[in-house]
Amino acid sequence: MEKKDIYEHLAKIYLDASLKRRKKKKPHLTVFKNLIFIGIAFIFGLSVFFFVHLKGKPPFSHEVSLVLAPDVVKINFHFDPARKEIYYLGLNQLDLTRYKTLGFSVKTNSLKEDIALRVEFTSAFKEKSEFYIRALKNKWQDYSIKLSDFQKISDWSNMAALSFIVEEWNVGEKKSIVYLDNIRVLK
Predict the structure, then answer these.
(1) Distance (Å, whole) CA 97 – CA 11
(2) Inter-residue contact 87 to 101 (CB < 8 Å)
(3) Is residue 86 part of a domain?
(4) How much is the pTM?
(5) pLDDT tens-digit profile of 46-104?
(6) Is the separation of the CB atoms in 90 and 124 below 8 Å?
(7) Residue 79: inside a domain, yes or no?
(8) How many C-beta atoms surround the C-beta of residue 139 within 10 A?
(9) Which 3 state secondary structure label does DSSP give 149?
(10) 110 and 168 belong to one structural domain
(11) What b-and-e string marks burial along 141-161, b requiring 16 or more CB atoms within 10 Å of the CB?
(12) What whole-number distance in Å separates Cα of residue 82 and Cα of residue 175?
């Protein structure tokens, strides 16, 4: 074999290999098609969730709220010798005049429904007003209390505190736990 034949043979191999590479699909087009398919599947899945899972309910709540305590709060009481256990939430002179309702979720670990919870607002002017939630259950329950039910508060523009209180005389057991979650005020 001569040099010329070797060069032609190598050139033929090289050109055939490069032509085969050019005929392959471009990978960026495949990725683009996959992204479009995933996007369509996501939109379809989201619409199915809203229309089937929520069963005609509006997908988003229209209530405007101010979350006061986003995490689960635990009131662990053991009345020996304590007389009450308090979860105190300082409001730092918060203006609540535009809000109408206090909302929160509560449950207890007690199997008996003999625990009452006192919910108390205190204004910066030392006005106090309370509301009692009776017969707490061993599963999460949502409560909404109108701020107008706290009748002893005359001015909501300068609030000092919100307290959740478990008192010894309002429980059947001397030892238990009360959980609070998603404490918020609603317009």
Answers:
(1) 86
(2) no
(3) yes
(4) 0.61
(5) 666 666 555 554 444 445 576 776 667 767 665 666 677 778 888 888 888 888 888 88
(6) no
(7) yes
(8) 7
(9) helix
(10) yes
(11) eebeeebeebeebeebebbbb
(12) 11
Question: Residue 46 to residues 35, 51, 58, 60, 148: CA-CA distances in angstroms?
Answer: 16, 9, 14, 13, 39
Residues 43 and 100 in one domain: no
Is 115 in the same domain as 168? yes
Q: Are residues 89 and 180 in the same domain?
A: yes
- Do 187 and 65 touch, CB atoms closer than 8 A? yes
Place of tokens 């599947």: 41
Domain that holds residue 47: 3-53
* Cβ-contact 180, 87 below 8 angstroms: yes
**Domain tally for the chain?**
2
Same domain (yes/no): 45, 73: no
Structure tokens at 160: 């000092």
